[in-house]
Structures are given as C-alpha cells and as structure tokens.
Amino acid sequence: MDQGILLQxxxxxxxxxxxxxxxxxxxxxxxxxxxxxGLRVTxxxxxxxxxxxxxxxxxxxxxSAGSFLLSTLVYVFRLEKYEPLGRLALFQALICLVIGLLFxxxxxxxxxxxxxxxxxQNWHSVLEWEIHFYLLYIxxxxxxLHLVMREDFRLLAERKRGVRRFVYRLLxxxxxxxxxxxxxxxxxxLKVCGIIGIPTAIAVHGGTGAIFAVVKARPYWYSSxxxxxxxxxxxxxxxxxxxFLRAFFFSNETPExxxxxxxxxxxxxxxxxxxxxxxxxxxxxxxxxxxxxxxxTLRMIMFNGRYAWAFWILQVAIGTILPLIIFLSGRxxxxxxxxxxxxxxxVVGIVSVRMNIVIPALALAIxxxxxxxxxxxRLDAVYAPSLVEWLxxxxxxxxxxxxxxxGLRLLPLGKNxxxxxxxxxxx
Amino acid sequence: MHDTTRTRKKMDRxxxxxxxxxxxxxxxxxxxxxxxxxxxxKAHPSKQLxxxxxxxxxxxxxxxxxxxxxxxxxxxxxxYNVVLEExxxxxxxxxxxxxxxPCMHCKNPSCTKVCPVGxxxxxxxxxxxxxxxxxxxxxxxxxxxCPYDARYFDFGEEYNxxxxxxxxxxxxxxxxxRKRRKGRSPIGNTRxxxxxxxxxxxxxxxxxxxxxxxxxxxxxxxxxKQGPLWQMISRRSHMRLREDLGNEPSVYxxx
Lengths: 427, 255
Known about the structure:
By secondary structure, chain A is mostly helical.
C-alpha cells in the first residue's frame, strides 16, 4: 500500500480520528446554537459585518482553486512527473470548496434562503457571478474525479462486499470494464474539463478577490492587484496543502516520488516568493500613496492593530519565511518530512493572510465620528470572534479533516499503482 | 448610470420613448405654428426624493435619530439616522459641529450593485433605495460596500427582555406591518433608511423631517432643479458627502 505514516500507524490514525471526533462534537454545539439563535450569537456588527467565517470562506475557496490549478499540470499540461498528484489535487479542490461554501452558509443571515441566488439575479453583483462559478466548478470537479477514478472504483467494488461494494459501484456510476477506446475518450473529456476548469478556477478565486476589489469605499480593498494576489496565494496554499498531505499520508518510497515532491516544493516556493513580491508592492504603494484610510488600514495590520502579531508571526514568520528557508536550503528541500512541514506552515500562515484581507479594512468606520455618534456594541469598530463563531469554525474544520481523512483512506487517491496491479492480474 | 433593476430598465426605455415622442410632438407643433411660444414640457430627469439639511440650523439634539427609531421600530444597533459630532478648536475658540447622516439614496448606489439576489434596489418612481426583506439572504455585502456606513444588520436583539406593548406592535415600515418574531425578517436582514416610504405614501414627510426642532431638514424632489429644494440649494454654499466617489448622494447639506 502506498499509505504514509499517518494512515499506517494505528495509534496515530486513531489519535487523529479521536481529535476529529472531539472537534465535531464540541463544534456541533456551536452549530446548534448558531442555527437556533441566528447571528446574534456572533460578535459581528454593522461596522464590521464580516469576520472569522468570511475569512475562512475565502481561505477554503483559495485552497480549492489552488489545488485545482495544480491538477491541471497533470490533466491538461500532461506533466508526467506530477501524475501521482492529480487525483489528490482534484479531491482537495472538491473538499475545500464544499467547506468554503459551508462557511458562507453559516454566515448568511437567512441561510435557508440561499436558493434565492438561483431564482433572483442581479447581474451587476460580483458575488452573484461567483455563486454561479462555484456551481460550474463543483460540477467540473465531480466529473473529473469520477472520470479519473472510475476504473478503480469498479475494481474496488469487485473486491469488497456489502455497503462498501455498493458505495464503490455508485461512485463508478456502474461503469463497465473499459475498452481502450473508452479510456481514450475519458482522457479527452478529462482534458476538456481541465481546459474549461482553468478559466473557471481563475474566475472562482480571482473573482472572490474581486468581491473585495470592487468596493471603492474601502481603499485597502480597491486595488486591481487584489484578484491577482488572491490567485497567487491560492496557488501557494494549494501547493502547501498538497505537500503536507502527500508527505504525511503517502509513503513516498520511490526516488521518483521524492523527486516529484521536491519539484512541488520548488514550485510552491517560487509562487510564495511571487506572493511576497506582490504583497510588498501592494503595501509600499499603499504607504507611498498616503491615502489616510489606506495607510490606517495598513498600519492596523502591521503595527498598531490588536492583531498585528498575527501578521508578523503567522503571515510573515510561519507562512512565508519558514517555508522559504526550507525550500531554499539544500538538505531540507529534499527531505520529505521537511517539505510536508513547510506545506503545513504555509497552510497555517495563510489563515492570517485571509483574516487580514477581510477584517482590518472593515475595522475602520468610513465616516469619522460614526462610532461615537451612537453607542452600541454592534456599532463598534473592534471585533474578536465570539465563542459560537469559534465553535462553528471548529466544527467546519473538523468536518474538513474528516472528509479529507476518509477520502485519503477509502479512495484510490495515490499513484494508481493499485489499479495497475489489478489490471495486470486481470489480464 | 448603472441600473440595477429590471423594472428600471423597462422604464428607461419607456421614458426614452416618451421623451422622444414629446420632443417629436414639440417639434411638429413648433413647425406648424412657428411664431407661437409653445410651452415645452419640463425636461426633468426622473423623480429623486431626497433631503436638504441646513447645518447652520442643526443643534445636534438627535430628535431625528429618536423619531426615526420609534417610527421604524428599529432594534438596538440599528440606527437609520445618526448625528455625527465634531468638536473644533480650543477654548475659547471652540465649537461643536453636527452632521446628521441618513441614507443618501444615491443616484449611483454602491449597495444595490453588489447585492447577489437583487434584494436591494432603487425604486424607479422616486429613487428611494429599498430592501425586499423576503428576498434578502443576509450576506451583508451591501453593508461592506456602502461608502456612507448607512446600512445596518438586524441581529435580532431587543430593547426589553419581556416585550412591551410597543415592541409587540406592528412595524409600519414599507407598509408591510411585520410583527417582530425570532428568525423572521427583518431579523437576519440588512436594514436602512427608507425616507419613511410608508409615510410618504400617506402624503406625510419622513419622521426625522417632521420632528426636527430647528427645522433644519427639508424633504422633496432633488431632481427637480426648479423645485423648492433647489431654490435653497442654489442660494447657499452646499456640499454632499464623499463627492469624490461619484455616488451622487441625494442629501444636500447647506453650509
């Protein structure tokens, strides 16, 4: 089996499942409270209407789009070297999208009216466009995943009994044994899906950046560079997550696999450097431009805000410098564990990037004197997530981990060695 | 500039036809009776209700804020109208300045543009920016996009733990007569100043205009350049908030 340490070692695996279970149980309390009491249980307000949940929403959409774009290396650009990463990339993309949308759902004042976006349109709204792109994107992802794993599902179904057999049959959509022609056609469809997917994924995350970039009322958001930064950091985070999963959930026995990981590390490192460059441009232009609200937002993020530590520790130290050191050093950049660790630290660091996009720009009431004009806790320009916001977040993160681990354990996501073996046996 | 409702588009076409027809008729009559001084129909752009606020008369009493709250039954944290205060100078040369801020009912609203479900829109007939509470999903994008911070989210909080008779009475907002109940709109929706649409329908003025102690507020059609509001605006120094953004607010401040 090509399963890595976290799946092979029983104690570690059980410990992981236990943690996920605890997260889900504790988190579900928060979910129940949120859905019975509404948004009053949050610390959001009318000055800072978006907080932790929206931050995590763009975080997961970014992870998803980044992962998907990496999958196109395999299915569109046909880079043989990265073939074993293709399925994992698609799977990551699907799970992250689902969790991202869960965060939006939790965040809505009337979540059960979400269907309104499909029956009542406003084509001037970037958010409206985004929602349609998400739907197209999820269909593409599901189709691609089905196509790449269809044969494995069929073979797995033959080997299993009972419920599992049925589930695998269902996932294969009762596909017959493929003829070479069918395989060829599937590869073509896959490529077409990937080609449609590239602009879609760009629209999915670049567009998510545009949700903020079109708000002219807030100079920090109002920047054409914003959607680009979103895309680059999405690629970085997608690469980070993949490095982490591939390093610790797969065995990486062969030199080719280790070589592939090192290559992925280099790619992620390059993108991270580009991300750093874009961030510097955005920051320096902002400070030079000296527009009061813009500078105030930047200063809040970097120096005098209550979360300035998050910028320096999470975003800069953990999310950027530490992984860059690993990618640049000769020894570490070839060690599987070090690469996985670099991936993890990117994935953690980007959380702060996302929060710093959403919250500080809002924490500045646009009209001076507004927060003093009328005193109410909902009209304060300070925000710290409430307990329920944290609990629901823990639930969603737990669900993310559960889906991820379940997929890694039950789906043929690695190199399709299993399938190759099976077909050989068949012939 | 950008129209955000389908009705608006239809109306635009209609007004366009009307106007071209009118000008055609005018041209025809002018040609038929050349010397006569045919009264041309007033070429108004469509109606835009708005306000003129005379800052010299504002004493910062917040009667507007309070009357608005009681008229629209707004919960804690929802204030359609606030009075911004500023202290300028140092003793003995010191004064306080007040700036009442209702919704600006912009000609080019940022909020209606971003709404993913078209729940908030600008009414064609009078230019008031309204929210359809039953369509609004509560995403709060409009709150983030409004350059005047004039939108508020109804988190479902109450003033009294046990509701008083007033708390239980129906809110007249939009003439929809809603009873405040947990989980029901407008709880979970964005809310904003409607220029007291329900009062306008009855021929009354907005509550804030009615209550203003210093008579600093005037209500009317700001698109009517020959109307009573422009009579004031044109004679005094005036400003609108954040003109640089191009939203073209419909609230004029006399300085």
